[in-house]
UniProtKB/TrEMBL annotation:
Residues 1-162, 207-360 form the N-acetyltransferase domain. Coiled coil: none annotated. This is Acetyltransferase. Pfam families: Acetyltransf_3. InterPro entries: Acyl_CoA_acyltransferase (IPR016181), GNAT_dom (IPR000182), Ribosomal_N-acetyltransferase (IPR051908).
Length: 365
């Protein structure tokens, strides 16, 4: 992948790129031709203070653009956009690494580079972090979207020259969050078991998730509250987006499971209701019903439990399920969870019509 500088001769190509793709997290989600022409004419894409680059992949396809501006200042800013068809393939983080190299190799000896995005733009935030940027600010209701007449929170990420040259990432230690920052360890986002590839969720997983959920609904509805509603492509995309966002924020760690042999998506498993201070994690999972009976979920949970105690320094991993959920209880037993007790009539059943007994399983250090 490379950055190729944009030239004025490519004006029509740039306008086509900007008007045929969607930009849901930008001020103008669908910029018009006249506005773009005016911006180009005024030096908004190429001047002494601005440079624009095509992001090209190894097949010479133009997968995105990145514009760096305030080049006359010590701290340049940038705007990164990936085309609809190429999102979810890691181009954003790779482009940021290339752009960072470009900025810090300028003869003016730039101090730092920074970028801003909406707090709910999970894909962009993940790109920042994978490229070595550090979250440095969270501004409440600072991002106004005229079309919706709504304010969103905004976040700022930056990289200093010192971190770039040393190849390090130095987190900001907020005085009132120092304990929280120290309590969350760094860890890998991909695991391997004998038959499974287990990784963090990505936005382009939505169709796989929707397909698996759709034909597994009769079984899922028996045991899960979220399956009581109709599952649409749109609601699935929102679910995956939320999973990505919560994974980045370490609020929950929901992993997606794929068969090594075929690459097929088979389900989800991960940790929810996390208490980082005492290192307590609750396991939740669901499996595409066409893959039941092969021991895949048992294999995944064993790997995740090992990961929790080895990489996350867990003191306790829990699994809670309906007393009548025989398959869930079997997975708990096969993965060395100990039944600590049964809470009688402590929670609504999945359909909300009855009260269930809840089995509490756990593994502790």
């Amino acid at each position: 992948m490379r950055l190729q500088e944009w030239t004025i001769e490519e004006q029509d190509l740039l306008i086509q790129f900007m008007t045929t793709n969607s930009w849901p997290y930008h001020d103008s989600s669908q910029p018009g031709r006249e506005l773009l022409e005016k911006s180009i004419e005024e030096g908004g894409y190429a001047s002494d203070d601005v440079k624009t680059f095509w992001i090209e992949n190894s097949e010479n396809e133009k997968v995105g653009i990145v514009k760096v501006y305030d080049l006359q200042e010590d701290v340049p800013l940038f705007d990164l956009r990936i085309a609809d068809d190429f999102r979810g393939y890691g181009y954003g983080s790779r482009a940021l690494k290339k752009l960072t190299q470009y900025v810090f190799e300028l003869p003016e000896h730039k101090i730092r580079i920074e970028g801003h995005t909406r707090h709910d733009n999970a894909a962009m935030r993940k790109a920042f972090e994978r490229a070595g940027f550090v979250k440095e600010a969270h501004l409440r209701q600072a991002w106004f979207l005229p079309k919706e007449n709504t304010y969103y929170d905004a976040v700022t990420y930056g990289m200093t020259r010192e971190d770039y040259e040393a190849g390090t990432t130095t987190p900001v230690h907020w005085e009132d969050r120092e304990r929280y920052v120290k309590s969350i360890p760094g860890f890998k986002e991909q695991l391997q078991s004998e038959r499974l590839h287990i990784r963090a969720p990505e936005l382009n997983d939505s169709m796989d998730v929707w397909g698996a959920v759709s034909h597994s609904m009769p079984t899922l509805r028996k045991w899960t509250g979220w399956a009581q509603k109709e599952i649409t492509i749109e609601s699935t995309e929102e679910y995956v987006r939320q999973s990505v966002s919560e994974f980045i924020g370490r609020k929950s760690l929901n992993f997606h499971l794929f068969l090594k042999e075929t690459g097929e998506f088979i389900g989800c498993a991960g940790f929810h209701r996390i208490d980082w201070n005492i290192r307590k994690f609750e396991v939740e999972y669901w499996l595409d019903t066409k893959f039941e009976g092969e021991g895949y979920m048992t294999e995944a949970i064993k790997e995740l439990v090992k990961f929790a105690f080895t990489d996350l320094s867990a003191t306790r991993v829990e699994f809670l399920c309906d007393e009548n959920h025989s398959k869930g209880r079997a997975v708990a037993k096969r993965t060395s969870f100990e039944l600590e007790g049964i809470l009688r009539k402590n929670a609504p059943s999945a359909n909300g019509q009855d009260l269930r007994n809840t089995c509490v399983y756990a593994i502790v250090t």
